[in-house]
Amino acid sequence: MIRLAILEPPGATANVVRLLADDTGVFETVLVDSSTTPAKTISRDLALAAPEVILLEVGQWPAVGSLLTQLKGATKNAVILGFRTAWKPEEQAAMEKAGISGLLEIPFSASELETAAHKALHDLRPLRHPNILAFLPSKAGSGCSTVALNTAAALANQLEKRTLLIEADRRSGSLSMLLGVEGDGGLPAIVENCGRLAPMDWRQHVSTIGNLDMLLANPLQPGPQPTWATFFQILDFAKDIYEYIVVDLPELVNPATKELVCAARNVFIVCEPEVASLKLVEARRSELEAAKVVPGKISVLGNRWEGRRLTRAALEKTHVPMYAAMPNDYAQIKNAALESRLVSRDSAFGRACLELARRVSSQQAPAEGRVRSLLRRFGKK
């Protein structure tokens, strides 16, 4: 959750503001203090509480202006949101120049508070990781998780890229069960503690296969659902640790997973060569674009592909470019699931995942010949 500090004069509306913050589900109030407290004391309290957002009542501007000078030195990693009864244009300009990242007018709603914090945090700490790869199914059962897992494993274990796999489907993600690593940690623990992540804590929450780190959904464990703040903090923490971040998503984009798809370099809609799966590609594309994902980032990744089952004309009707297609290797994938392991590297599917990993890591087309039959390419004629 986003750590929040509230600073306002004695006898004001701190309790009301705190209740509003609680209603969003994304804030943890770590400090409530008076803006008339000596600046040195406030700076000390803020250093101990380490808030990410400071909500500051700015009704008495001369006094607050002096306080801001002190706060800016003590809270370089926090954004300051100012609030008061009404704003004049010249006052807004002065506030922004003084270092206030967002302005709220009383009475403001929980949604307005959350929106202002979202914008200010992204302006201060933009998520600019160059290699976030998101996989989501056109419909449930398309094998999206299998593709994401084995491609991430190829990046980490065969191409030796520092790679994290995030299983973002907290409700139905099945990788912990398929790999036989149910237990403590994973995404449920991160939801509770991601605002205070430290490297040693992180190691307790991730599972590993070889060099691949996995943050798994563990849906059988109780706990709250992630919010956009959860994934913002995870990406912000992981961006300096991993070269590649692979995200396994549920089929529907929600306010939490929007954080992931908007930060991704590529978003792959995984579909099967059957009519319903293919028709739903366009629905998923529309939903992604409605979530402000740049259309050029979106492409289709065919799974269990048998080219003879669908024509090029059927593919073109999706209005989404086909990036590649993975072979139908049912027996190998079933055996891997039964034995709680990755698909064999020597299988057709395993080799295709390696070629897909090579392609996304180099942005070069796979070689011709034998590889082409493993990882089909679907460019325009």
Short summary of the structure?
With 381 residues, the protein is α/β, with parallel strands linked by helices.
Description:
The chain has 381 residues and is of the alpha/beta class. It folds into two domains: 2-124, Response regulator (Rossmann fold, 3-Layer(aba) Sandwich), CATH 3.40.50; 132-378, P-loop containing nucleotide triphosphate hydrolases (Rossmann fold, 3-Layer(aba) Sandwich). The protein has helices at residues 14-24, 39-49, 61-74, 89-98, 110-124, 144-158, 175-178, 186-193, 199-205, 228-238, 258-263, 275-290, 312-316, 330-338, 348-362, 370-374, and strands spanning 2-7, 27-33, 53-57, 79-84, 102-105, 132-137, 163-167, 207-209, 212-215, 244-248, 266-271, 298-305, 322-327, 376-378. The strands form two sheets. The protein has a nine-stranded mixed beta sheet with strand order 8-9-7-10-6-11-12-13-14, with helices on both faces. A five-stranded parallel beta sheet has the order 2-1-3-4-5, sandwiched between helices. It is elongated, with a radius of gyration of 24 Å.
